[in-house]
Amino acid sequence: MQDLLYFSQQLINGLTIGSTYALIAIGYTMVYGIIGMINFAHGEIYMIGAYTALIAITGLAALGIAWLPLVLIVALVCAMIVSSSMGWAVERVAYRPVRGRHRLIPLISAIGMSIFLQNYVHLAQGSRNIGFPALIEGGFRFGAADSFQISISYIQITIFLTTLVCMTLLSLFISRSRIGRACRAVSQDLGMANLLGIDTNRIISATFVIGAALAAVAGLLLGMYYGSIDPLFGFIAGLKAFTAAVLGGIGSIPGAMLGGLILGVAESMTSGYLSGEYKDVVSFGLLILILLFKPTGLLGKPEVEKI
Amino acid sequence: MKTSVKKLVTAVSASVALLGAGHAAAEIKIGIAGPVTGPVAQYGDMQFSGARMAIERINADGGVNGEMLEAVEVDDVCDPKQAVTVANRLVNEGVRFVVGHLCSSSTQPASDIYEDEGILMVTPASTSPDITERGYELVFRTIGLDSMQGPVAGKHIASLNPERVAIVHDKQQYGEGIATAVRDTLKDAGVEIAMFEGITAGDKDFSSLITKLKQADVDYVYYGGYHPELGLILRQARQAELDTVFMGPEGVGNKDINTIAGDAAEGLLVTLPPAFDQKEENKDLVEAFADKGEDPSGPFVLTSYTAVQLIAEGIEEAGSTDPFDVAEALRNGTFETPIGTVEYDDKGDMRSFEFVVYEWHSDGSKTPVN
């Protein structure tokens, strides 16, 4: 019984962290699906989202506003607006001018953007870890009081549910809306979509904006969950989310969700049953295995070479 | 690749800043090397504040043998690669005395360069025993060793009669070194070590570790490492309602842990150098810091002050600015400093250095534990 409780607790930990990987992974996967480039600055967009949310929360606190739903909504909206405009601007400044060139050129431009944003926040906000208020505290507990108890905090539930809701909305948006249909068309054949009168530049911008907005959601949620942020934390999270995207099949939205959850659970099980030292070994080992045996990822479609 | 480019940018901007610093009429350059930026920059602030104050006061008293001291400040970000870069820059600047570095993992590679180039280094903060184990002639410190600090922590935990203790560290030279020293002390005392495990510095999610600690049902957790990770562990442990007592080395003992951990920092045990700023004979000095609006209570402020003072007194004693003569003078002399009487053994370690156990509070203050 005790073992089962322990296992469930680790599973919950893994699903929580996995769902945030999934939220960030969406940004990688959508951009890749549409223009076939890897947006390495995406982790930084997420980090900027977290900083913006913190600034908004601090600002509201200074104004004496403490009503939780309002604080959360304002922080979320601010973070999404700033991150989205950042995502849009990054695409406009660093990727559009080099679009259609050799694959390496946008990649290098993306790495440059990532370094720039990291150092910008470094200068603007300082390099120290900044504490992030918890806002959502408390949780449920299961199990006998004298032995191991499972605890699920409200923030963990919030993270998991928010991810599910965002993913469902996004899937609906992509499959039902006009812009979503255009997105799919552009991802199938950019040139043809252009000929048929789709404003491809607008669609590509929209992709960046949507990915960045979701990253901002993750930034706010993770800031509250972990409790501190620093200018470098987007890089590590971005790397993990990128792994999740590749694991699930880059370009596929359900794949990003699945990849994120698998990666999160694998990590927490490794720390739980082996040792925290092997956490990254297992997650990146998993990536290598997937790439060896199923290079398109779990849910990815085999790529047809576009001419 | 990404990181190295970032480091390059930092290095270039730092060197531009250095160029701008210009040259005063000073004659003895003292390099101050520590983290100005990066996750442990607050320790760097302590180091720079202490060293600058010492240089100011010595210069105000007419310098060393009539020559003024000039600070050459460099930022190593507490990163071993960056430490080597800035060490080489100090060599190029013609610096012959260095106060630094701060993190053991930076001090170690940098000291290789200083020893080769005939530069005397006094680290005010690095506690890893390995640094002075290599028979170097020009390496000194104004702080104790993990092999002194670890046993103090270990004995304290053992004296509380715990049934099971978990030890966690950040896999870095400093953290793992001190965690090992604590483990050995506890083993000798017959305490059961339920867990000895590393985490990755820079990680944010410790929920799995905390679940494991909960499962292991331990009375105490010792953490070897720095405050950014321990702060998060404390906070997430509080959220998961894990109520064991945590203990850490001086690397976790600064007020930034409160901004991260909040109330969860209450009751944390920390081994620190004694509060030198409370000593009667340092009253003058403490006031001088207060006049500048600086806080001398950080663990590395007065050790850094002492490092500069020792270099100055060593030069005076030796009557020369040759680092080898100064090293000789330091090894043979007895010095009265703000951190007490300093005498060196052959390795460059202080013959005695005390660590004290403090209880940390959620407002950033601390009280000694008996």
Number of helices of chain B: 12
Fraction of residues in β-strands of chain A? under 5%
Mean pLDDT of chain B: 88
Give the CATH superfamily of the largest domain in chain B. Answer: Response regulator
Tell me what the CATH architecture of the largest domain in chain B is.
Answer: 3-Layer(aba) Sandwich
Please count the beta strands of chain A (DSSP E, at least 2 residues each).
4
Report the top-level CATH class of the largest domain in chain B.
Alpha Beta
Structure class of chain B = alpha/beta
The helix content of chain A, as a percent range, equals over 70%
Give a written overview of the molecule.
The N and C termini of chain A lie far apart (58 Å). Chain A is globular. The longest helix of chain A has 34 residues, at 2-35. Chain A is 73% helix and 4% strand. Chain A contains eleven helices and four strands. Chain A is mainly alpha-helical and 307 residues long. Chain A folds into two domains: 40-129 and 153-231, no CATH class; 250-307, no CATH class. With 370 residues, chain B is α/β, with parallel strands linked by helices. In chain B, helix 2 (41-60) packs parallel to helix 11 (301-318), helix 3 packs parallel to helix 4 and helix 11 packs across helix 12 (323-332). Chain B is elongated and about 65 Å long. Classes of the chains: A mainly alpha (307), B alpha/beta (370). At the A-B interface, helix 1, helix 4, strand 1, helix 8 and helix 9 of A face helix 1, helix 7, helix 8 and helix 9 of B.
Q: Quick gist of this model?
A:
The complex is a heterodimer of chains A (307) and B (370). Chain A is mostly helical and 307 residues long. Chain A has helices at 2-35, 42-62, 68-95, 104-125, 154-176, 178-188, 190-195, 200-226, 233-248, 253-274, 279-293, and strands at residues 130-131, 139-142, 150-153, 228-229.
Strands, helices and their partners?
The complex is a heterodimer of chains A (307) and B (370).
Chain A: H1 2-35, H2 42-62, H3 68-95, H4 104-125, E1 130-131, E2 139-142, E3 150-153, H5 154-176, H6 178-188, H7 190-195, H8 200-226, E4 228-229, H9 233-248, H10 253-274, H11 279-293
Antiparallel strand pairs in A: 1-4, 2-3
Chain B: H1 2-21, E1 28-34, H2 41-60, E2 69-75, H3 80-92, E3 97-100, H4 104-117, E4 120-123, E5 139-141, H5 146-159, E6 164-169, H6 173-188, E7 192-198, H7 207-216, E8 220-224, H8 227-239, E9 245-248, H9 256-261, E10 269-272, H10 283-291, H11 301-318, H12 323-332, E11 335-337, E12 340-342, E13 356-360, E14 366-368
